Design the sequence.
């Protein structure tokens, strides 16, 4: 059923190429009928529709909520004849990611995903896939690891993979899930990058709560995201070797190459984000959403769906005379050091919302603040004070009152000239 096929009209010596996947007539009709409409759908549906528009060739699935509905939607698209793709229901996450890796290695546009402990079950494959430079895409709908294993937003699952060479970033709304999925493919498949991508959404708060998503025309997507052509596919006519086991002396150059690819991704992310705005008319910040930071004295640094509540809290605190702003990180890998420095220049105190665990780390709190404080340490001139706030763990909400509590702690830090401590557990302290 796969839509991938080899183009045999090659000149001698040319690398093997895959012909573009062809959409089904029903798929063309279905997508043309939706062009320009706005549909209420949750984050899982938005991810599935993005994969449909991207015309993925191979889908590998293994169920674990809250991401399961992504694969349910894609299975329905295939059953209805809307999408022509291979759908592989694996016997576990390791097999699932291995199959996506194999498909991507053959030049197919591959799509997979997971949540919570499913993300960690296939951990062996992450370094292998990025080391082989195979730009598959993985959707993650966050949930907490066991224990407590709750069905809800906690970022520990995805952040466990942060140093494995994958592009990694959070979407805060269903519309952003749809858009970021297309943008991530465009970045990862760029020959200057060739890295896999994790497009992450908060479990329940984004994955299961509906928002309006604008459906584009097929031509818009195809002009932004052309058919994928892997430069070195596995092909019997031109043998190549893909694999993680190499000679010791080959290791340092390979690791340097992968590190350089992540650095090069910074410029490509800027470029592709701007291209997306030109084609679709929706403009996103390259890396950091700066909200009311121009004259801010204190700021919240955050990623993911809880930023929606944070933005509303900033508005209410501003109305009460508090000079507060928000810096939302759209990408965690590569980490936007220079962009965050610029966004927080002039701010006196910063609080990082940690919806994750970094047990035993430098702050004895979360993971994200370690990158944020390292970025701030490298700033020219006066650096802001920095602390972190453990909130939303176990899939809990982060209500407006908790953001107001955080603002109070940051105001006290400014008044004292120092933070009270490196990490606060919100809801467990006075």
Sequence:
């Amino acid at each position: 059923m796969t839509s991938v096929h080899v183009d045999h009209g090659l000149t001698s010596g040319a690398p093997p190429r895959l012909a573009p996947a062809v959409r089904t007539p029903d798929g063309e009709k279905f997508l043309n009928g939706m062009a320009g409409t706005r549909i209420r759908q949750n984050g899982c549906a938005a991810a599935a529709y993005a994969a449909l528009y991207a015309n993925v060739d191979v889908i590998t699935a293994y169920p674990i909520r809250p991401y399961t509905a992504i694969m349910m939607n894609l299975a329905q698209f295939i059953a209805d004849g809307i999408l022509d793709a291979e759908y592989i229901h694996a016997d576990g996450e390791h097999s699932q990611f291995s199959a996506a890796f194999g498909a991507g290695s053959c030049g197919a546009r591959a799509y997979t995903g997971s949540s919570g402990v499913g993300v960690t079950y296939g951990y062996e494959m992450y370094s292998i896939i990025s080391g082989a430079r195979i730009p598959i895409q993985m959707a993650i709908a966050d949930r907490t690891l066991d224990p407590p294993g709750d069905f809800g937003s906690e970022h520990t699952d995805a952040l466990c993979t942060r140093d494995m060479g994958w592009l990694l970033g959070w979407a805060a709304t269903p519309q952003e899930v749809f858009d970021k999925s297309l943008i991530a493919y465009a970045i990862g498949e760029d020959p200057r990058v060739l890295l896999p991508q994790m497009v992450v959404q908060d479990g329940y708060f984004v994955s299961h709560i509906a928002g309006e998503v604008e459906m584009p025309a097929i031509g818009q997507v195809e002009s932004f995201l052309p058919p994928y052509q892997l430069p070195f596919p596995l092909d019997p006519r031109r043998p190549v070797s893909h694999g993680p086991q190499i000679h010791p002396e080959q290791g340092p150059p390979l690791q340097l190459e992968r590190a350089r690819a992540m650095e090069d991704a910074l410029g490509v992310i800027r470029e592709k984000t701007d291209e997306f705005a030109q084609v679709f008319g929706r403009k996103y910040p390259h890396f950091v959403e700066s909200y009311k930071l121009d004259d801010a004295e204190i700021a919240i640094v955050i990623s993911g769906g809880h930023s929606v509540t944070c933005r509303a809290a900033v508005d209410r605190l501003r109305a009460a005379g508090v000079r507060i702003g928000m810096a939302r990180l759209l990408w965690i890998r590569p980490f936007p050091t220079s962009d965050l420095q610029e966004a927080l220049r002039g701010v006196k105190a910063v609080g990082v919302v940690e919806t994750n665990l970094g047990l035993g780390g430098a702050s004895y709190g979360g993971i994200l603040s370690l990158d944020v404080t390292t970025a701030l340490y490298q700033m020219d001139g006066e650096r802001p004070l920095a602390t972190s706030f453990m909130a939303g763990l176990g899939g809990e909400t982060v209500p407006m009152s908790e953001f107001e509590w955080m603002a109070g702690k940051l105001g006290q830090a400014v008044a004292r000239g120092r933070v009270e401590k490196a990490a606060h557990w919100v809801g467990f302290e006075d």
Q: What stands out?
A: Residues 32-226+250-280 form a domain with the Rossmann fold fold (CATH 3.40.50.970).
